[in-house]
Amino acid sequence: MRVMKGYNYKTLFFFSLLNAFALVLVVHAQDGQSGFISLDCGLPLNSNYTESSTELKYISDVPFISTGSSHSIAPEYKAGRQEQVKILRSFPEGIRNCYRVNVTKGTRYLIRATFFHGNYDNQNTAPEFDLHIGANLWSTVTFVNVSISSLKEIIHLTSRDFVHVCLVNTGSGTPFISALEFRPLSSEIYNYTAPSESLALLYRLDIGSITDLAYRYPYDFYDRSWLPYNGKWWTLISTSKYAQSQRSYRPPAIVMSTAATPINESEPMIFSLNDLDEKANLYFYMYFTETQSLKANQSRSFNITINGEVWSEAVTPLYLNTTTIFSTVGQSGSPEYNFSLVKLQNSTLPPILNAFEVYSTIDVSQLETDQNDVNSINNVKSTYGIKRNWDGDPCAPVEYLWTGLNCSYNDFDPRSIISLNLSSSGLTGNVTTHISKLSRIQSLDLSNNSLTGPVPQFLTRLPNLRILNLERNNLTGSIPIELIKKSNSGLLSLSVGENPHLCDSSNCEKKKKKKSTAIPILASVFGGLVVTLLIAVAVFVGLKKIKKKTQEPNAQKDSFESSKRQFTYSEVLRITNNFERILGKGGFGTVYHGFIDENTQVAVKVLSSSSVQGYQQFQAEVQLLMKVYHRNLTSLVGYCNEGTELALIYEYMANGDLASHLSGHSNTNVLSWEGRIRIAIDAAQGLEYMHLGCKPPIIHRDVKTTNILLTEKFQAKLADFGLSRVFPTDTGTHVSTVVAGTPGYLDPAYHLTNMLNETSDIYSYGVVLLEIITNQPAIIKISGSDERIHISRWVSSTIDNGAITSIVDPRLEGGFDINSAWKAVEIGMACVSATPGKRPNMSEVISGLKECLATELARNNHAQVTDSSLDVLTHEFTPLAR
After folding, report:
1. Is the pTM of this model over 0.85?
2. Considering 63, 129, 314, 403, which has the largest number of Cβ atoms within 10 A of its Cβ?
3. Catalytic residue of the set 220, 373, 445, 702
4. DSSP letter, residue 572
5. pLDDT digits (tens, 9 = 90+) for 595-610
6. Which domains does the chain have, with CATH numbers?
7. Residues 850, 851, 853, 856: what is their CA dihedral angle, to the nearest 10 degrees?
């Protein structure tokens, strides 16, 4: 017998399918679809039917998804197709679109997604996109052409009472889906993987089939699809009697009634799996049933080896009873697996094999958002009819974080929502009680809406709430006294201005008696907490009397009233160990390293007593950081305001500034392309918050690589807000101001006109993005001359050569996706456009960079999503049993 070493298993398998395409399917159903969920994607609401070939009952997918549009496949592809692939749902809008399917928590499900293009869009081109299960990549969906379908199947243990299945646009065409099916499995089967792993189907084969038919429900209790396969050097044996169905794995009796055995009975039964990813962790399942009634002098017993090592010994199939041999530990490390079923010496009959399954594990360890938070934020979305692209998991993966949210990210606990910004979102009605279930929320911004009713009492019971902004609504009644107490004690930054019918409890009666009298709530209730007003006064006084400030040690004290902790100067000395370690120079003084306690590191920025400009920047930074909060802006821990000693205390950023990891520095740890794009997204999200999330908007005015700081895990945060300016929206499209910024990053249009708006920051950000991509400085010195050229001109001239590799940092040594790099360069060049009106806004920048990241992640995960996933596995192109 010839050994099948190097045999292309997938090719033979594919051709066996082609031979069966023309056959017609008809089956007779059995009862037992309990727990089955069968969604025909694109089917109109309230529609349902029973597929005649399987007797499976399909319903509309509309209740399970809120996006996408329905389409029919081209008429020429409908003949002979099952109903569930004749229409589909496509998703031309949004990066991620998700189904939410309610399931039984703690149950292992077979989940199957079917995709058949059928030239529904008349483009005759099939797309490529990603498929996610929850927050984790399931697979990349690809197609041979529009007439060949793709099927993805996974065995997944549910950790909550719903599952998100998401289609992600990676920039290679519009995602779509034809059918989505869930089948509950017994807890006794497919259960040897870690909780952080699921099983993705590679092969499920009916070995020794005497037909070209595939068998699924009703023959298979779990609706697995068994595809026929026969080796060239095998002979087929069968029985007219059906084997008893095994109580656990329950392979179909009709599949177990046939088997294959080697033609040469004295030789092993050999087959191979080729072209596999060496990193893939594989699980094997073999099914055996003796199809012959053996005589007293006959026996069948054999060993199974994989790549020469014994996998199972003395396998003796039972007559008309199923035996399952399966992996309890995954196997990896080889691109090829050679299986040998070797007859034992005392056996009179050769080995047999009835059926075979192969699965590859996929990592589903990425933590999702706490289920209570998911339910709560979805209820908020439903209550207010929020139209944002809020789909799938709110916090994970971080690339698809919902707009307006910030979440906690650690390695052990589910993600939690810690910040919710619904400012200017058109909200009406009362403040919904669903917010009360966001138990870990720290910042809540509901400003600039049309909310009515009272300030709810439940806000006082949110234990972690530190920032509450209810400004510019139509709230009525009195402010809960507990909120006022928290505000006065510095535990809460509370903003309730421009609610004309809102008052504190002590003044409500006065307002009833004299409605015409305008009572400035913030002034009467909060006093020193009107941070913006008082700081503005302090800045004015400080600028006018700066020379006298050393003689007036307490002149600015009220300017720094806030919810942040106040430190004495002696505490600053202790924190910095008498200013022992310098981290760098800021806009108005020196930055020192320090410890608030044994484990909490901080950065302390101390005002130079001789710096007039520094004092102005100090005031500006205080004004901004006491008003804003965002995960991509450096956080203010506290401050010192003791006489002439002024200092700001920030969170410590372990990896310093971005500039130290780029050009002109000796850092040998080269940032990966994925890491660079993540840093670029983080910085962009910080700017987006300043431009769009703050009311009125704030212009940073000094975006550069030295002002982008990196945490221990390389999360990027914008820093140094000393030059920042508020941009009142009622003043028009810009404000006129003295030009400030750093050469190389300064917007030429702003420099020429003194007209400042958000596009000035976008230009500076574009320079930073080009630096991230190229590892070149903002101003490049031409080798061998004194000539200098701006980075945008250098990139522009290099683009003309058409080679992205000559633009991207050569230290990456080609370790990046070319499409991702081109996209990033395009975004950077758009940001530095000479015409401000042609520059994208920060939301558009973020969207584009997330596409870059998705493309790069797909490249990185390609090793786990190879051709061995066998896209030709499909029900629609393989005939089912009659």
Report:
1. no
2. 129
3. 702
4. H
5. 988 778 999 988 866 5
6. 31-191 (2.60.120.430), 199-232+252-363 (2.60.120), 401-529 (3.80.10.10), 548-651 (3.30.200.20), 658-864 (1.10.510.10)
7. 180
